[in-house]
User: Fold Oxygen sensor histidine kinase NreB from Streptomyces lichenis.
Amino acid sequence: MPKRERVVRMSVEQPLWRALTAYRLLTMVYAVLLFLSTREKFERPWVAAVFLAVLAVWTLATLPQVSGAARCTRPFLAADLVIALTGIMLTPLADVHAQTFDGPTLPSIWTAGSVLAYAIKGGWRWAAFASTPVAVANIAERGHPSQDTLHNVLLVWIASIAIGYVVEVARASERTLARALEIEAATRERERLARDIHDSVLQVLAMVQRRGTALGGEAAELGRMAGEQEVALRTLVAGGLARPSYVSEDSSQGAVVRVVDEPDAVLPAQAPGDGDGTVDLRLLLAPFAGARVTVAEPGAAVPLPAPAAREVAAAVGAALDNVRLHAGAEARAWILVEDWPEEVIVTVRDDGPGIPEGRLVQAEGEGRMGVALSIRGRLRELGGSAELVSVPGQGTEVELRVPRAAKARRGKAQQA
Assistant:
């Protein structure tokens, strides 16, 4: 049995956490060595020694917390930032001359690690939140900050925000890459299943159709149904536009695929880059395709506002229902989609016996409003039109025209 494709997720931020771990260790060692090399200059070296001992223990004990985003919790980040701020404010107590000679603080550049943890964890906003109190503490510790101090504070503030922004971009890229890998794996699996289905199920359905037609009688009806299922299955495995649709069962006519007139029944996801709720009309019309219904559409997407596309699809479904009910189960139908700059035209044509003259007026008088409401009424609300042309013995043609601004016109009509 062939194995399913596995999607291996890549983490672009995990190397950042490893780098942060190394940075914290190295800067902790640097802060300790810096103190040991200049301890004779401290008026209260024991203050610096106690703080650096706490800093070393804290850094080593919290290495697991900076190994990944899941373990780097908000309480840890808050405590880490408090330790960094405490070290900055203790610097004048340990070395009175630190303010005069603009020397390094007790935690030195280790403080930047706390801010970077915020940046990697939450992005540039978290980085700005953490770097601001660090900047204030550095300025307050100096009393009268020099130009070098201001430059260093500004550098940490800008660099941390920039790194946070890069992390956010990297995460978005990671999600996009993961989605692309999933689509690729799904496509390969679909192709594999399509090959298997083509070699087995489709051939069996084709054989049933041929044998049933040859035998006649009830077997012919079984063959016809097998042929319809073969067409539907071929459309599915070929990766066409067909989407899951609802099927209404009719014991006398067989299974008829149709769109249910519900707000979200077959509404597909928004097309990429469409933020105004537009959908590809082809996606809503594709489920109508079958053994006796042919859909011809442009090679490119036919975007329409979602409500308008849904109403057009419902009108097409009503027209096909009329074909099935009045032209007979053996009648064929064709759906043609035309995409023009100002409007979209959908034509539904059949090869049935046509509609006798005066039949539509008579139907409306009898209370049968299928054409008047289900087709013409829908298009009228969209600011479009529906024209029906029928010649006895030559079939019926329904032409639906919907303008590109259908959504705006409908909104104005509802407000009025």
Notes: Confidence is low (pLDDT under 50) at residues 1-8, 240-275, 363-370, 407-416. DSSP finds 14 helices and nine strands in the chain.
